[in-house]
User: What shape does this take?
Amino acid sequence: MRFSEEFEKRYAEMVGHYPTKRSILVPSLLYAQDEVGYLSDEVIAELAKRTELTELEVRNVISYYSMLRTKPAGKYNVQVCTNISCLIRGGEEIYDHCKKKLGIGHKQVTADGMFSLEEVECIGACSWAPAMQVNYDFHENLTIAKMDKILEEYKQKA
Ligand code: FES
Assistant: This one.
């Protein structure tokens, strides 16, 4: 398995900053996911080898973090928070609206591959609840009308 030069540069830099090889697993998984789109069997095998862990150990770590995925996501991965602050301020209604609008459920991808949807725990934007994250962009103080507008903007961008 070959990663890009940029990945290898980051990886080499990280190796020097962490006390053990296993410590670089999570950031390596994130960089690999950004590069490949998801954590394929090949990626898992490669990072297990590099960090001197078993593939099972790597998979256990992946299953713990909701932002890590072993299947391809849509071009825009919509993560709607329904944790307590967002829940109180309508997060669940926003999430239900997204499910209907996109025609998909949790961790599913639209047929055209444009959107994937996830219901997630707190994303650290409680003060501006209800909130969601699309790829690395945050959207806060959501309403159903605002959500429709945001999804439309992503469609136009694609
Ligand atoms: S509970 Fe939704 S961002 Fe914290």
Residues 81, 83-86, 122-126, 129, 131 surround FE2/S2 (inorganic) cluster (CB under 6 Å). The longest helix spans residues 144-157.
